[in-house]
Amino acid sequence: MYLIHLPLKLSQEIRKTPVPKEILMPLDIKSVWEGMEECQRLGLTKAIGVSNFSPRMLEETLAIAEIPPAVNQVEMNPLWQQKKLREYCNAKGIHITAYSPLGANGTKWGDNRIVECDVLEDIAKARGKTSAQVSLRWVYEQGVSIVAKSFNKERMKQNLEIFDWSLTEEELERISQLPQRKGFLISSIIGAHDLTLQLDDEI
Questions:
Q1: Per-residue pLDDT reduced to its tens digit, 77-95
Q2: Residue 8 pairs with which residues in a beta bridge?
Q3: What is the predicted pLDDT for the residue at 110?
Q4: Which pLDDT value is given to residue 105?
Q5: Across the strands, what pairs with 118?
Q6: Tell me, what's the pLDDT at 107?
Q7: For the chain, which residues score pLDDT lower than 50?
Q8: pLDDT at 111
Q9: Which of 200, 183, 21, 19 is nearest to 105 (CA)?
Q10: Which PANTHER family match (predicted)?
Q11: What is the 3-class SS of the chain, one letter each residue?
Q12: What Cα–Cα distance (Å) separates residue 15 from each residue in 12, 130, 177, 199?
């Protein structure tokens, strides 16, 4: 799987962030997607997709695509549920992969809000699970694939122990009512420029 990582362009290679406003430009989706399609045609990748794309960006891509994106990889977890984006992608046959399903603690943008969420902790305690397992199970039950990261062997094992049980309708309803807040902001990494702030509002 070969992905466009962010819907923007840098005019030069960078070694650190944030970046100067002058090297930041909107993505020329037509030429970039044509290059992605050529990679697939040449057999350099099995499939192509995007990451951090909104419905508008996907619509723009689909309008010029001969090969539609197979995947849109986005931040998704119980505290950023991406309901409208999931509905759009389902209607268009674009699979969603969820990154930061546990809140990306330890990154520039992440924190402990998932594993320390009271509702998830209550459900976990009642089920004999961890709040991380409840979060991963919720994401899995939405029909998306998961990118979870851990260097801890015990937590890696726990992350795989989500397939032999299900959340109840009541538990799903409680999770659906959680306040929503995006964790990953492009502006927090690339810099607070007009383009990045506009993208953060959209995705």
A1: 999 999 999 999 999 999 9
A2: 26
A3: 77
A4: 81
A5: none
A6: 76
A7: none
A8: 83
A9: 183
A10: ALDO/KETO REDUCTASE
A11: CEEECCCEEECCCCCCCCCCHHHEEECCHHHHHHHHHHHHHCCCCCCEEEECCCHHHHHHHHHHCCCCCCEEEEECECCECCHHHHHHHHHHCCEEEEECCCCCCCCCCCCCCCCCCHHHHHHHHHHCCCHHHHHHHHHHHCCCEEECCCCCHHHHHHHCCCCCCCCCHHHHHHHHCCCCCCCCCHHHHHCCCHHHHHHHHHC
A12: 10, 38, 41, 22
| 40-56 pLDDT tens trace | 999 999 999 999 999 99
Listed in sequence order, the residues at least 6 apart from 116 whose beta carbon sits closer than 8 Å to its beta carbon are 131
Count, residues in the chain: 203
> Is there a cis peptide before residue 18, judged by omega within 30 degrees of 0?
yes
The whole model's pTM is what? 0.93
- Map tokens 């209550």 to a residue: 122
What are the two backbone dihedrals, phi and then psi, of residue 35, each rounded to the nearest 5 degrees? Answer: -65, -40
Residues forming a β-bridge with 9: 25
Among 122, 109, 106, 59, which Cα is nearest to 80's? 109
